[in-house]
Amino acid sequence: MFSVVCFTRSSSGLSFDFYAVSCPSAEIMVKNSVRSASSTDPTIPGKLLRLFFHDCFVEGCDASILLQGNDTERSDPANKSLGAFSVIDSAKRVLEIFCPGVVSCADILALAARDAVELTGGPNIQIPTGRRDGRVSLAANVRPNIIDTSFTLNQMANIFSAKGLSMDDLVTLSGAHTIGSAHCRSFSDRFKLDSNGKFNLIDSSLDKEYAAELTRMCPAGASASVTVNNDPNTPLLFDNEYYKELLVHKGLFQSDSALLNDERTKNIVLDFANNQEFFFESWIQSFLKLSSIGVKRNDEGEIRQLCSMTNG
């Protein structure tokens, strides 16, 4: 298990002791909410991590993804499959009882994503807090800012670069796919069955036997609710298995396979596959950078009373 202790104040203006006086048990309350929800639904950690990514990449880490309503980020089709909103709402309710008006939804989401990794066997990370909740959430801002599973490496790198994240961060944070699951439609264009039921591999970067297995799990006409584990071997553990699967061409998404098929990123994949400790150390640094994207401070945001709506 790894942890990192950084300076009292981060470059984003956040601090590691932000709630020490105003709500000293804030982080424990969030962790308890995540642990409780995960004990009854083991898919929760993967959902929390994905929710955090989708929040930070649009408007920054400001809980704008949590706002409900017409034309909000949450209403965009790309975000329809997001989950674990109830975990954030549950933590917020507890915090409003003990520390009313103090802890932001943005911090709750960041802490919950951090805890999701630790609870599934990943590194323990100390992250700074003090984020404010954003007031803007527009569906129109979603597509230009999030990664699609069919993206090339260049397309992904361009979006990451715009967020201040490097190619190394891209490979590292893709490791989030070591937990969680995906709907069939997010990868089903990589293979198909013809009218005679014959299997046809469209994307040659995907292992044929694995693709055939995916076809059985996602047959034509399958319910839109059917999901497949991102990592077929240890789907509930945050480990380096994702990178090992990439090496044998079992990356679920086209965007996963792209990491192995490009010389700029292939060696990083190899390093992470061979050394989980190195992956964890890299994850700590990249996650800290992710959690600081576009944070709101002071008058730039607010502390919402309810995470699903602004204060007024």
The profile of the biggest β sheet is: 2 strands, antiparallel
Name of the top-level CATH class of the largest domain = Mainly Alpha
CATH topology grouping of the largest domain:
Peroxidase, domain 2
Tell me the distance between the termini.
43 Å
What's the domain count? 2
Rounded Rg: 19 Å
Described by its quaternary structure, the protein is single chain
Going across the biggest sheet, name each strand in turn: 1-4
Query: What name goes with the CATH superfamily of the largest domain?
Result: Peroxidase, domain 2
Give the uncertain stretches in residue-range form. 1-9
Secondary structure tally: strands: 4
Structure annotation, total helices? 11
Protein name: Peroxidase
Family: Belongs to the peroxidase family. Ascorbate peroxidase subfamily. Belongs to the peroxidase family. Classical plant (class III) peroxidase subfamily.
Subcellular location: Secreted
GO biological process, one term: response to oxidative stress
